[in-house]
Every structure is written in C-alpha cells, then in structure tokens.
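Worked example 4.2. Below are the chains of a multi-component assembly; read each line carefully before continuing.
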Amino acid sequence: VVTFTTIIDGFCKVGKIKEAFMILGVMVKSHCSADLVTYNKFLDALCKSGKISTALKLFYYIKKKGCAPTVYTYTKIVHSLCKHGKIDEACTIFDMMVKNHCSADLVTYNIMLDSLCRAMKFLEACQLIDNISKKRLLPDVYTYTTVIGGLCKAGQIVMVMKMLKDHLAKGCALDIVTWNIVLNALCQQSGSNEAYAFLAYMVCNGFCPNLVTYNTLLNSLCKDGKIQQAIRLFVQMPKNGCNPD
RNA sequence: GCGUGCUAG
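Applying the procedure described above to all two chains together yields the following structure tokens:
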C-alpha cells in the first residue's frame, strides 16, 4: 500500500489526478487495496484543484465502504469547504465527526475558528473557543494567532494589544506570523506611524522581522506617501537577513 | 506515505 500510495502521491502533487486514479486501478488488480492514507491523497488533490463536489462524493463513498474516515480525512474536507466559503457545510461535516466517534482535534478547531473569524461570525467563534477549553485541548501558536487575527478583523486593536502583552508575560507561544498579522491590522486601522512604532516593540520583544514584515510596512508607508521612511526601512533589510523580493 | 495561520503581485 505504501509503495502505491507514494506513486499516487507523486501524480497528485503534479495535478495528474486521472493518472493517479489509473494507479489505483493497477493497485486493485494487484490485490492491494487502498487505505485511508491513499484516499486522503486523492481527497487532497481534488480539494486543491477545487473539485469539492467530487471530493465530497469520494468522502461519502469511503464512508459507505465501511472505512471510517480519520481526523485527517474530516479535517481536509472541512478545510476545503471553509476555503470555498461553504461554512455551513463545513459545520455539518464537523458535527458529523462527533456522531462518528472521530473527535475533532486542535487542527480541526483551528481551521473552523479561522473560517468563522474570516466570515465575521465572531459569536460562533467565541463558542468554538469555549468548546476547545471544554475539551481540554491546549491552544497552540495557530490558535492564538487565529484568535488575535479574528480580533484584528473585528477592529479590536486595543484588545489585541492587551492580549499580546498578556501572552508575552505568560510565555505563550507566539511567532513572527502573529506579529505580522497585528502589524498589518495597525497599518490598515491606525496608520503607518503606529505600525512603525509597533515594529520597534516587536524587536524589543526579541522577534526578528521577516520579508513579510518588511513588505507589509513598506506597503503602508508608500501608500501614506512616506517615501523617505520607506527607503530608510528598505536599506535595513539586507543586514537583517532579508533580501527584497 | 496524509491536515491549519501573515504582506504584496
């Protein structure tokens, strides 16, 4: 199974789904049946190429066959539905997990949380956060970042700043992406001066700007007509190990 | 051998 699945993965990665299905045919003829990892590869490829309805069909086929989809399978489908704005359908699948005794893990929750925030469904997002703690799942960097990103989207910059401070004090996992999200929100909601000051705050806390950090701030400075400041920032990039792209 | 987050184009 591993050999065939690896080949199938190869075809899927380059978008040759039909060829991958042919390998599946060869596989069956060799009396080797596909397992969930194999199916997950197909689902992945189908989802990535936007063929959600085909993916959903395969998903239901897998279930009908008596294979119990794994957390990975469910999560992929949930993610794909979310990405295409089909949050309600994603919720349906999400709820199906409980019924099928395959409980959602942190990745699944993070994905749902992110999609709810993107759709500005903050009430539902809060309920989801409650469920995460009820299930005694420990939030990770993705969770924190998603929550902070959601608050940014809701225009709650003050609360975001409080939360950042709190997380720093508690030593919660944060990374450069978290900071970049806040930086971007500041650029849009408070202007480039605030954002510029925020960069200094970030560096004070031991985080190193990356290419996205620079691009975000440069974009904002240029939009505000602050070309000199932008140039000053631009020339700092190489010595911080960031080559402009 | 499989799943989640940031800017711009």
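Take a moment to check your reading of the output against the notes. The two ends of chain A are 42 Å apart (CA to CA). The first helix of chain A runs from residue 2 to 13.
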